[in-house]
Amino acid sequence: MTTTKSQVPYVVHGPQDPSNTIQSRGMIRQPAITKDTGTTKVWFGMVTGAPNEMGQPHHHGEAETAAYVLTGKVRVYYGEDFKEYIEAGPGDFLFVPPYTPHIEGNPYDEEHSVILARAPDNIVINLGE
Q1: Are the beta carbons of 75 and 104 closer than 8 angstroms?
Q2: Distance between CA 108 and CA 5 in Å, rounded?
Q3: Is the separation of the CB atoms in 73 and 18 below 8 Å?
Q4: Spatial distance between the Cα atoms of 116 and 95, rounded to a whole number of angstroms
Q5: Which residues, in sequence order, are bridge partners of residue 44?
Q6: Pick the CATH number of 29-126 from 3.40.50.150, 3.40.50.300, 2.60.120.10, 1.10.260.40
Q7: What is the pLDDT of residues 55-91, one digit of tens each?
Q8: What's the rounded Cα separation, in Å, for the pair 9 and 80?
């Protein structure tokens, strides 16, 4: 039997060039496992958030988003006028449902880093500010 890359385990060494994925102000999304590396149903990568920076309003269309915070703290603002928020720190997991308008923010002096999984793909729809 002949196997293809999608039929055997493989390693992607480190996050890839962030210019290959959609970005939002205040964050750098670095892809790792994507359609370019052989997946068909998940985007997996790393996100860093600049200190004292608010991202822009956006949502992820049909994509579900799950994250694990490595360092720092990240806030996810949502709801009417983005007045509500959740905050996660190192060791915390967070989930953002599909089509949920939100803003990632980092109101602290330390950069945050997050491991991020999104399916069915890294859909990012930036909204007007």
Answers
A1: yes
A2: 42
A3: no
A4: 10
A5: 33, 117
A6: 2.60.120.10
A7: 889 999 999 999 999 999 999 999 999 999 999 999 9
A8: 44
